[in-house]
């Protein structure tokens, strides 16, 4: 066939295939479209697939992930899949259809098309080697921080140096001039859309469910418990995880991680390498760069995304980059619904934390526990026929070092910014990710056996004997991991205790179980408790030589921990009006073992007292079991703090009095610069969390103004009988008295008398307010009802004046 005729035929077939893909909505049509794609790619060489990737592939992405709009064909450059204005994904996407249909045959056919060893990715690999096709990823679908940076004329040029996923991929738009865009090859383009899919779904579902969440503020206990595998038994946990493994997207994610992201040795744990990539030794550096690209893409789409401080502070300072959009993303909650994929992603990457010594196994058990891989021990050059530049070796040395900061901020932002009165399901998923991260000694390759079975299409599952053989705890071999991630075991625990106090009223049983789970992990081993305490002691002591070698060796970790405190919590803060716990020295200190009012022991004791009051108030059939959980929490807290127990509290109040006592048990500890003991507000608590019937920014403004008035009028000071000025008599000479005459002096005297009367009246009002325990509280003016009345009155007045002026004219 003539080359020109062949090109025309290829173009025609690509257009017909794009039309068939666009029309495929039912399982039968999807299966037929997959077969057509498979047949087309098998019958064409890589250099003959240009029309397919220019015309058909963008349409395939639209239908695969369920984006609404169709793709218009283009003969010049491949178009990017457009989205609807709401960035939502429709219900007729192929992945959604596979999940909802529960059809194993359909799932296997789609998976075979998209699998790492499938014909589609094999063709993508071949096309990318020839650099036949480049795509422009739409800026509005990038992670939010990247979108803001690219829109800045000042900092857009430096984004390729700030983040590895943009290195060499940010180009200036040849048409629009100074506008920068992200150009990707086919594999990178596909993975960007693959990473964006759950973000798009989470944003869409979150917006659709806002009204439903507000109507269902109390969520079901059994539904939440089943979603947190850490609370369930081994059998129920396995059934829950088996349900997770049936998620088609999770299955694909694991296959891509397994194929493209090495966790130990490049020649091991790579199922699809020989059948998919067919790389010669000269391409091994590309494998490392591809793995790095994939990991950073998932990190920035899922964990970073809308973070107001997306990159390390020192890195930004070195390039002179500032983020002016912090006012927009300052208190933004991470995208909901990512817990499932993030947990798998984090668990898989933490496999790189396990050291191998014999070169055959990825997990080495010493005294019943795997060992922590010291950062930098990974040496890809030890693999056969592998030559990798040193910068890439260090970057893949341990994926744990890459994920530390973004995962910490992802978890902390979830705890800090979870809105009051909403479902806590998203927090439960993030909590499960955190629990998995701080127990890496329970992670091994055996945890992925069920996922391996779904990827392979076999029926093999993990048995109870397999689970029991893996059930190992902390050992001294993991000391390096704990020290490298110390804030997860200290500072983040304090933030979580603050979250638990704020949401205790939502479901006291579950909140108590969550706190018990965290404290139980910290106290599961005496060695772990001692290590956490010793680091805290060294952190708060002056660096002097001691007779204990272990304490002396811990001093070298202090600079790293202090830098992490400043960097990992950069820009995150709790407001005075959210009712949460904010230790005074934000980003400067550790408070888990502090003895002050903001210390962990005091806050946990207060939490136990509040939880007991809540549980006895609601009683119910599970009261005995819940009180037993409280007793367990007391025992764990006693173990953590060296035998200091929490005394039980008994209640013998009437129901109405009991309800009042529960409401007054917990209040914010500070108002302005005064402690709670010196600022006793009567009536509604001025610093309560912002409710749905208030204007948030007005509430914060009036809270600040009220506190300023109370301080300057000295209402916060105890009444010692000396409030107000002390009056004294002044003798006036007869000559001065005789010279008082004229209207000016008369007006001056009247004004002075009037001012004195107003001052005396104000002093009397202030004294009466102090006597009766009243304080200035302007927060009521922030009520939406009050604001609406004022706005309506203002509009009515303007319209009345305008109408009167019109009548006069």
UniProtKB/TrEMBL annotation:
Keywords: Membrane, Transmembrane, Transmembrane helix. The chain crosses the membrane at residues 786-803. This is Sphingomyelin phosphodiesterase 4.
